[in-house]
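User: I'm designing a mutation panel for Vancomycin resistance protein YoaR and want to avoid disrupting the core. Could you give me a predicted structure to guide residue selection? Please restate the sequence first so the numbering is unambiguous.

Assistant: Good idea. Sequence first, for numbering, then the predicted structure tokens:
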Amino acid sequence: MGNAGSPTDPPTDPFAAVPLPTRPVRPGARGIAPVSGNGSRLPPGVSPDIFGPSAPAQPSGAAGQTGRPGGLPPVTPAAQPWRVAAQPESSLQQRTLRDEPSLAPGGGPARPEPSSSGEENPPPRRLRRIIAAVLALAVLVGAAYAAAAIFMSGKMLPGTRVHGVPIGGLTATEAADRLRDELADDEAKDVVVRAAGKKYAIDPGKAGLEFDVVSTIDQASSGFPSPTQVWRALTATTDLKPKVSVEPELLDSTVEALARKVDVEVREGAVTFEGLKPVAVTPASGRKLDREAAARAIEKAFLGPAREVELPVSTVRPEVTAAIVKRVAADADKAVAGPVTLTHSGRQARLDAETLAAHLSFEPDGAGGMRPAFDAANAVATVEKKLVDPALAPREPTFEIVGGKPRLVPGRRGKGVDDHRLAQSVARMVAEGGSRTIPVTLTTVQPRISEAEARGLGIKEKISEFTTNFPCCQPRVTNIRTIARLLDGYLVKPGEIFSLNGVIGQRDTARGFVPAPMIQNGRLIDSVGGGISQFVTTMYNAVFFGGLEDVQHVPHEFYISRYPAGRESTVSWPAPDFRWKNDSKYGVLVKTSTTTTSVTVSFWSTRRYDVESVSSDRYDFTPFENATGSGPDCIPMTGQQGFSIDVTRIFKQDDREVKRETRKVVYKPETNLTCNSTPASDSEREQAD
């Protein structure tokens, strides 16, 4: 009780009840056992060490003598495993006080100090509750993930779409079926491309583009999903790009067909000749479709976000400017001011100015200027026999027809003019001036076609033949028979373009041509080689019915009744030319024959087509005019009206039409020309083309 005085419970300290003396106690006082050496009084058997170390006693004897209180011997220090540096006594006392448990007032243990946050350390029970809660939450989350993953396993993850079509929650088979159904219309839509300001529609199927459903679905995970995949499936949307399968050959073919519509060939500046008059060819820029980039763009646009795409087209600049071309053309007439004489070992031949001009041109030199270029091989073909001994000349392989079957006649190599050196010599003469007499050198010349190559050309049957008739005994007949002889047995290789002017060259009297009437600028004039347009018309019809490619043919200005309307052609030197291409994989053998009133051209090869010709009625008639002429060069003409006609060539294989071509031909009205009041008779008109 609070007022009961001193407590009866024993104190924690057994000596706390012993009253301490308030004044010094004399040694030997009653009730206190004397302890020698320190003057204090303790109960019997109690050591003063229980109160901790005492202050060192003051020396009482000789100087420097030390010891424990009461004269006890010093305490032996505890053995140390290693030597410890001596420390001050105050430091040792502080360490001892730190190491010993603190006592609260009254002798009890001290309470733990609060933490820095002001709270006492949490008891173990609370920590266990926190850990248990975390573990429980982890178990719940894991259970939720496992349940969702099991539900989603084996299917497209929720939120998955392809081109806007949802396939989440479907199996791979179900997703494939849905995509095929939903995207069928999009897959069939044309891809629209823009190039050079125009739009073109591309059929994906013909371009080799197809929706690859399997590869598209393979992008999506349908196995057991990871936690990240589950979270994304629950919180976001996954858009897969449609995969496209491509047939490269079809796509390349489509791009190439598109390029033929887009590309414009650059026109390089050049100077050529019409007769002896220089003609400037003005340069013009071209354009070219980037094939590889176009293919990638078309593939990307198919089933892409935009079905219309711009294709890359680059501009191709000419090498020379129009000003340079104009300047070169102004001086080009000096190059053809006269003939060029070729010499070799006492032999000589002359290239007249017209022949020189027909094979001379000026082209870009690669450095912004222009240089002369001379086609020596074709130019010298007409005069080579004058420079080379015929016994040494090469001979081309050919075929002769024996018993209705072609039989090979082998060729041989020989000597001929080195046309490469001749071309350099003529170009140097034109550029630098100097002598117009040029020595030529001979070289070994191989036939255009080897014997082995000739055997593999597929010359086995007649594929076409055409005949035209004429009155006998006229000068033009000589020219027709001469050109037929020169071309008999000529072989045209696969892919080669036959040019009549290129093969025959300028018609001259040295090879048997004579002057005869021909049409020029709407009038009849005499010209060496006149009348060979009838041979050209005959060959054109052999090309027509042989199913070969017509490259260049020019109908007569006026209709001539001995030819089929719309299926005839003229030719002159150096222009217009007559050209056709052997677009087959077989060679074509040209065989000719003549009588006094007809010429026949037949082609031998391997037949590809049966060809039919269908002509429309004549239409758009135009009246003729009357005119009067005089002088020795006037050749009268009987007037006839002009008209138009359409001619269709139909190609068939096994009696089935595979293609057709239609050409419109327009004839001008023929002037009714009177010379000295005497019109030309029908027989006179028959002499001219």
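For picking mutation sites, this is relevant: Residues 124-152 form the longest helix (29 residues). The chain has four domains: 160-262, 270-316, 338-449, 457-689.
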